Amino acid sequence: MAQQRPYNEAAYFKISVYLFETVSLPFPVAHSHFSCGMVRYIYMEQNQEINLENLIDRSHENKWVAIAPDYRRVLASADSLGQLMSEVSGQDVVFHRVLPRDVSFVPASA
Amino acid sequence: MKYPYRVVAGGVDIAGRPTKRAIIEVEISRGGPGRKFLALVDSGADQITMPAAIADALGIDRSACPQRPMMGISMERTDGFVAQVMIRIRPHIEPITVPVVFIDTDVPVLLGQEGFFDRYRVKFEKDHDIFEIVPAPQR
Questions:
Q1: Which residues of B touch A51 (CB under 8 A)?
Q2: How near does any CA of chain B get to the CA of A26, in Å?
Q3: Where in chain A are the domains?
Q4: Chain A residues within 8 A (CB-CB) of chain B?
Q5: pLDDT digit string (tens) for A22-73?
Q6: pTM beyond 0.80
Q7: Which of A52, A76, A79, B96 is least crowded, fewest Cβ atoms below 10 Å from its Cβ?
Q8: Is the four-CA dihedral B113, B114, B115, B119 of positive or negative sign?
Q9: CATH T-level fold of B2-10+20-135
Q10: Is the CA virtual torsion B6, B11, B13, B17 positive or negative?
Q11: Could you give the ipTM of this predicted complex?
């Protein structure tokens, strides 16, 4: 349920049709209004379920973390990815490298 | 498909606003069971780049792979090696086989130009805090 979900244009269209049929909004109005406004808002709110802000704390900085697939909790963390993979071997997890919060990130090779 | 920029825990930009990055979930495999990672969509990276630990987990023999030195903002060369892996943007996009440069650092998974931006059309809309990824037409 909490998987990352795409921004679904087909869903927009269905909701626009629903509004057209039930609230009698002219279809172009329903579609454009909701595509650009409420539906986008609702969708984006749902998508915030992958909320790293609430999931990651200072204890995870500079570590790899294994996140539950529903993005509700961190199952394990380790200094290296290899170590973490060994710890959670066989589990369905999402791996994530947690960067320090007090630095700007520009990818570097060393 | 459009995705929201993700808020980085505790991070703030120069103006003091929460730092947000273009992060998506990808599944990485070599045809067998995949492993899921959060990856940064990085238009500044020449190639898809991953820590070598992923190659080890996938059973890639680095001694049999072509070498590929990398250089980042530190301007120091780092040895890397290249292997083909399958990546799938979760949840829906079909997997593609791409070349990946693996390096011995704990770099996050970076989705760079070769293999990602040349296979997907990526449109950043930072002013809306969303970005769009759609398969590019075959050339």
A1: 7
A2: 26
A3: 9-47, 55-97
A4: 3-8, 44, 47-48, 50-58, 60, 64, 67, 69, 80-82, 85, 92-99, 101-102, 104-110
A5: 555 555 665 565 555 555 555 544 454 567 878 888 899 989 999 999 888 9
A6: no
A7: A79
A8: positive
A9: Cathepsin D, subunit A; domain 1 (2.40.70)
A10: positive
A11: 0.89
